């Protein structure tokens, strides 16, 4: 929320500087996200009146102006603005004035006596852009005709002001207005709060609009009145326009500006209908399936039974608590209006606007809670402003109260408050805090019973009151007490490594870490995870991020697309994060799956060249085996096994299941061609996703003495079916009866282009190097031959292999 300091000080003016006020708000829970001046510093800029405008004798686009700047004599100033004319009042920078620099951090621009194309110029007429008041550079900044000549522009436009931008948490709905913030400042500082008196508008006719509230669970209070004979073409007063601009709201029209002004002033969203466009009366109800509404923003939406609406006798006219409809919008031709202010239940408004991919100031406030007690007073305030600006005749007030929030007393135990706060507080201190906050309470020894006021939707339990006590007393008053218990760092077992160790290892391999949302597009789950029933988010922050991810691969593919859109040639990224998987082993009472697991996963993606560009080696694209080597190094000193498999996101013939100690821990493979094309990728990246929990175990090193005997190597070549895999070959060697084979390495694969008699059709030759070792005795040729024969026999029995040659 953004507002000017001067407006706040009209309601409450504590003896604090701007910076002290900002620190006070931040330390009380209303974080000041930004604090900046309304306008940068400039000097000697005054109000001037253009007396005459003549064409420059030596330039077609310049004018020579005779200007009265209140200096006692007429000034001659050369000006190039297209909108300069005699009689207008504009800002004039006198000789010696300093204007804001053109670029941030630059030197101020000094105005000097100059000669422009042979004509003397004694100053400069200024645009809003030259004073850094806006980006408008279409011409001079036109000032009000009643502005006193010679008056300092900073004083006239109240530019010695500051803009506060608050970053409010959802529980601070009562601070979504300038008056609401002032009320908090008054409680925090003790400075008096000036509440403006709102006088009822004079009633000039007896007309009422028929309004029926059919849904008290949607609308608890509905107030409104008819105002006839308004002039919608009237100009909004400059002071309203300026304040709205400093709240970040542009001026639209007088009626809209007045409604917005009261919203920022008191936090009360309202709506003004064109009375003559309403068919019959209004009905406040829940929507019906198939009903449509064209909103003020130009969108046409379809409502249903979960969306509140205001309808007339023929059609829906407004989205309750969020935005009005185009059908009853006020325009220049409007003569009669209906002013509405209501209390909408927060639960009935929350999340509705996000369903339609937009947010509004009204919805932002109503879904957090707006004070239901002052709808009539705020309509009176709006009516008064309408009568002052647009004229008209006000009718009687129609106020329907159906169901208001029940304000149940909350008990605060003083002793409990001291325990939670961490310092001793007394009952008089607590009572003083509640008095300053305007909370009604009763007390007995050690207890205070507080009834929350109508504007405080965030007070419901004792801890809320405790927070109010220390917030008003001041967090700076908390004592600096050292902890009683010693702080001892917990060290991991040597057989475990931390998640940070995995991150460091991946970074050492050249991967960059990414952090992504846990909620993703449903398309990613369906296509890349093969998950047709993902866990859904009840209130997503965006319509497309509606499900929880069961795989990290979709997030990484999206990161790749983001980088490719910014011309990144090489992308190696990883993420260590949670996935959300339904647990079929846990069921609810109705038999549906109710369990949910959140396993920690490590996923990676490699795209582009295998290594950064360098002079010593040729560039080549990353492939399956590069990433496979990274995984093998990641699980070391254990050995991973890669078994051909299928995964929804990966190429059917270029995918493997990763196994560790006989248990599957994830998949590695190239992105499926279908998804490479669907996600518009030039080439397919290599991806992997592993169970992080399995990677955190590290076997402790075991001392093994150096062998006293020498190893012996024997090479054998066997002919096997071409479908026999490397893993099957190694498994057959391991399961042979030989106890002297320490290792086996595949070093050659041969398959002739035209099958010969030796190999045979559908066969290939695989050459193995066997390492044999007996640590107790020297191996003889007879023992070596027997061990090799045992390996060959095992290969023959298990794989149908035969010795080549």
Describe the secondary-structure layout.
Blueprint: E1 2-4, H1 5-11, H2 18-27, E2 31-37, E3 43-55, E4 63-68, E5 74-79, E6 89-99, E7 109-110, E8 114-116, E9 119-121, E10 124-125, H3 153-156, E11 162-167, H4 178-189, E12 211-213, E13 219-228, H5 238-246, H6 254-266, E14 271-274, E15 282-286, E16 292-294, E17 300-302, E18 308-311, E19 316-319, E20 323-324, E21 337-344, H7 346-349, H8 352-355, H9 361-366, H10 375-390, E22 393-394, E23 398-401, E24 410-413, H11 414-421, H12 427-437, E25 440-444, E26 447-451, H13 462-473, H14 499-508, E27 512-513, E28 519-520, H15 522-528, E29 547-548, H16 553-565, E30 571-578, E31 581-587, E32 593-597, E33 600-607, H17 624-635, E34 640-644, E35 650-660, E36 663-671, H18 673-678, E37 686-691, H19 692-695, E38 712-721, H20 726-734, E39 741-750, E40 763-772, H21 781-799, E41 802-803
Parallel strand pairs: 12-15, 27-30
Antiparallel strand pairs: 1-11, 2-11, 3-4, 3-6, 4-5, 6-7, 6-10, 8-9, 13-21, 13-22, 13-23, 14-21, 15-18, 16-17, 18-19, 19-20, 24-26, 25-26, 28-29, 30-33, 31-32, 33-37, 34-35, 35-36, 36-37, 38-40, 38-41, 39-40
Task: Explain what you see.
With 805 residues, the chain is of the alpha+beta class. It is 24% helix and 28% strand. The protein has 21 helices and 41 strands. A seven-stranded mixed sheet has the order 27-30-33-37-36-35-34, sandwiched between helices. Strands 3, 4, 5, 6, 7 and 10 form a six-stranded antiparallel sheet that branches. A hairpin with a 2-residue loop joins β8 (114-116) and β9. α12 (427-437) packs across α13 (462-473) and α20 (726-734) packs across α21 (781-799). The protein is elongated, with a radius of gyration of 39 Å. Residues 587-593 have low confidence and may be disordered.
């Amino acid at each position: 929320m953004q507002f000017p300091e001067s407006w706040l000080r009209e309601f409450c003016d504590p003896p604090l500087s701007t910076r002290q006020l900002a620190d006070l708000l931040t330390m009380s829970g209303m974080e000041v996200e930004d604090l900046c001046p309304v306008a940068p510093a400039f000097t000697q800029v005054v109000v001037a009146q253009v007396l005459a405008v003549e064409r420059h004798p030596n330039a077609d686009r310049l004018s020579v102006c005779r200007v009265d700047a209140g200096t006692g004599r007429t000034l001659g100033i050369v000006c190039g603005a297209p909108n300069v004319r005699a009689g207008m009042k504009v800002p004039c920078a006198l000789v010696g004035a300093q204007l804001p620099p053109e670029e941030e951090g630059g030197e101020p621009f000094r105005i000097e006596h100059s000669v422009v194309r042979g004509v003397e110029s004694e100053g400069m007429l200024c645009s809003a852009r030259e004073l850094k008041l806006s980006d408008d550079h279409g011409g001079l900044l036109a000032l009000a005709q009643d502005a006193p000549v010679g008056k300092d522009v900073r004083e006239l436009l109240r530019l010695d002001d500051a803009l506060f931008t608050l970053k409010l948490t959802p529980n601070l709905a009562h601070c979504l207005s300038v008056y609401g913030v002032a009320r908090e400042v008054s409680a925090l500082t003790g400075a008096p709060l000036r509440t403006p008196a709102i006088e009822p508008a004079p009633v000039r006719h007896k007309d009422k609009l028929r309004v029926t509230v059919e849904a008290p669970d949607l609308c608890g209070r509905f107030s409104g009145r008819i105002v006839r004979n308004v002039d919608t073409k009237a100009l909004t007063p400059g002071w309203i326009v300026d304040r709205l601009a400093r709240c970040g709201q542009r001026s639209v029209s007088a009626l809209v500006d007045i409604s917005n002004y009261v919203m920022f002033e008191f936090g009360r969203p309202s709506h003004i209908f064109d009375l003559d466009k309403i068919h019959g009366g209004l009905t406040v109800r829940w929507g019906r399936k198939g009903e449509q509404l064209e909103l003020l923003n130009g969108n046409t939406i379809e409502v249903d039974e979960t969306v509140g609406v205001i309808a007339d006798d023929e059609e829906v006219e407004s989205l309750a608590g969020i935005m009005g409809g185009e059908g009853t919008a006020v325009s220049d031709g409007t003569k009669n209006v209906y002013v509405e202010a209501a209390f909408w239940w927060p639960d009935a408004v929350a999340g509705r606007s996000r369903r339609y991919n937009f947010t509004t100031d009204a919805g932002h406030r109503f879904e957090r809670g707006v004070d239901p007690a002052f709808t009539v007073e705020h309509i009176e305030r709006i009516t008064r402003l309408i009568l002052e600006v647009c004229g008209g005749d006000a009718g009687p007030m129609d106020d329907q109260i159906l169901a208001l929030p029940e304000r149940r007393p909350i008990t605060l135990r003083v002793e409990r408050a001291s325990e939670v706060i961490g310092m001793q507080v007394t009952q008089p201190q607590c009572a003083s805090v509640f008095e300053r906050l305007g909370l009604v309470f009763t007390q007995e020894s050690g207890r205070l019973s507080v009834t929350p006021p109508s504007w405080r939707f965030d007070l419901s339990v004792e801890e809320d009151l405790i927070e109010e006590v220390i917030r008003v007393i001041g967090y700076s008053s908390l004592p600096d007490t050292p902890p009683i218990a010693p702080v001892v760092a917990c060290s991991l077992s040597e057989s475990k490594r931390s998640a940070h160790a995995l991150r460091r290892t991946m970074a050492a391999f050249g991967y960059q870490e990414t952090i992504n949302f846990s909620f993703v597009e449903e398309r990613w789950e369906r296509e890349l995870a093969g998950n047709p029933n993902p866990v859904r988010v009840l209130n997503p922050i965006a319509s497309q991020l509606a499900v929880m991810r069961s795989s990290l691969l979709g997030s990484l593919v999206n990161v790749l697309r983001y980088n490719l859109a910014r011309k990144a040639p090489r992308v190696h990224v990883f993420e260590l994060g949670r996935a959300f998987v339904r647990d079929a082993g846990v069921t609810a009472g109705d038999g549906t799956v109710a369990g949910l697991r959140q396993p920690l996963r490590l996923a990676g993606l490699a795209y582009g060249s295998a290594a950064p560009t360098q002079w010593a080696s040729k560039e080549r694209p990353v492939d399956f085996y590069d990433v496979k080597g990274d995984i093998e190094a990641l699980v070391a000193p254990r050995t991973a096994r890669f078994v051909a498999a299928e995964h929804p996101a990966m190429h059917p013939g270029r995918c493997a299941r990763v196994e560790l100690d006989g248990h599957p821990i994830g998949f590695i493979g190239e992105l499926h061609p279908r998804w490479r094309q669907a996600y518009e990728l030039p080439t397919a990246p290599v991806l992997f996703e592993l169970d992080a929990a399995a990677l955190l175990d590290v076997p402790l090193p075991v001392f093994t003495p150096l062998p006293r005997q020498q190893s012996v190597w024997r090479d054998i070549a066997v002919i096997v079916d071409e479908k026999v895999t490397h893993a099957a070959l190694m498994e057959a060697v391991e399961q042979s009866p030989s106890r002297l084979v320490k290792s086996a390495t595949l070093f050659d694969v041969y398959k002739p282009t035209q099958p010969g008699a030796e190999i045979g059709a559908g066969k290939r030759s695989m050459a193995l190097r066997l390492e044999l070792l007996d640590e107790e005795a020297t191996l003889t040729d007879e023992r070596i031959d027997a061990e090799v024969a045992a390996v060959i026999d095992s290969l023959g029995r298990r794989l149908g292999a035969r010795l080549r040659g």
